[in-house]
Design brief:
single chain; alpha/beta; Aminopeptidase; two-stranded antiparallel ribbon; 6 helices; elongated; binds zinc ion
């Protein structure tokens, strides 16, 4: 065979090899083979994404009271105020009322101690607490004990209030019992000038502060009388045991009504 006859055949093969990549490339483009895998869009899959809880306080519905005897927390208003934690720093300087040589905390403390003595006789566990409430403090009853002050020396009477937002569902019952028994023992009149300082008391705000009551603690704040009023002082300063009896009786009635005594 004449080798010169092979030259056109070689030319055809070489031509075919040269255009082959164009066919293959066209086929792959048609199959989207060269489409970019990273489009710059954010990833669509987040493995551990759980939907938000529709009710953040739902866990309260299944809460059950710890076993054990009735427990009561008596907070001595303004006591050890300067030891308040950082989250309550702004209250450190709030030393409360003072009159006739008495600081409010001393009056509150005497009433708290006498109340504790009465309750302890009923085998109730009593915690005397300073301004700083232990984190999420739980008890069947929590009473913040205070005394009022006013530039108007004729202002007189006691006040009691439940939290503006009460998750225990029982604070209003506690208010009713103590209002009745405290008035009966002390003969002081009920003063209904309840302020936002009372219903929004810091120790009630467990959703805001760590050092606050547990949401299921039935909590109230009691203004025992006016430290700036001479007549009120005859009870709250001179006879703290009378105030204490009024407060303790209300707590006992409340605990009895809830079958905790
Ligand atoms: Zn006070």
């Amino acid at each position: 065979m004449d080798s010169t006859l092979l030259i056109p055949v070689f030319k055809k093969i070489i031509f075919f090899l040269l255009i082959l990549p164009l066919f293959v490339g066209g086929f792959l483009v048609g199959k989207n083979y060269f489409a970019p895998t990273d489009t710059g869009a954010p990833p669509y899959v987040i493995e551990d994404l759980t939907p938000p809880d529709p009710d953040p306080f739902e866990w309260l519905n299944t809460w059950t009271r710890p076993e054990g005897p009735a427990r009561v927390g008596l907070q001595v208003g303004h006591w050890k105020n300067n030891e308040l934690p950082e989250e309550l720093e702004r209250l450190r300087g709030n030393t409360g009322a003072s009159a006739a040589g008495k600081s409010e905390w001393e009056v509150n403390y005497a009433i708290a101690e006498e109340t504790k003595n009465i309750l302890a006789e009923k085998n109730i566990i009593v915690d005397i607490l300073p301004s700083t409430v232990p984190p999420r403090y739980w008890a069947d009853v929590f009473v913040a004990i205070h005394a009022d002050g006013s530039t108007d020396r004729s202002a007189s009477g006691f006040k009691i209030a439940a939290p503006r937002r009460d998750f225990s569902g029982n604070a209003i019952d506690l208010v009713e019992f103590i209002t009745e028994t405290y008035g009966a023992e002390t003969k002081l009149l009920f003063d209904d000038n309840i302020s936002r300082n009372m219903t929004g008391y810091y120790a009630f705000a467990w959703w805001r502060y760590e050092h606050a009551v547990h949401p299921k603690t039935a909590s109230v704040i009691l203004e025992t009388g006016f430290l700036t009023n001479a007549n009120d002082r005859k009870i709250i300063v001179n006879r703290p045991e009378v105030s204490a009896k009024g407060l303790a009786n209300g707590i006992i009635k409340y605990l009895t009504s809830k079958e905790l005594l």
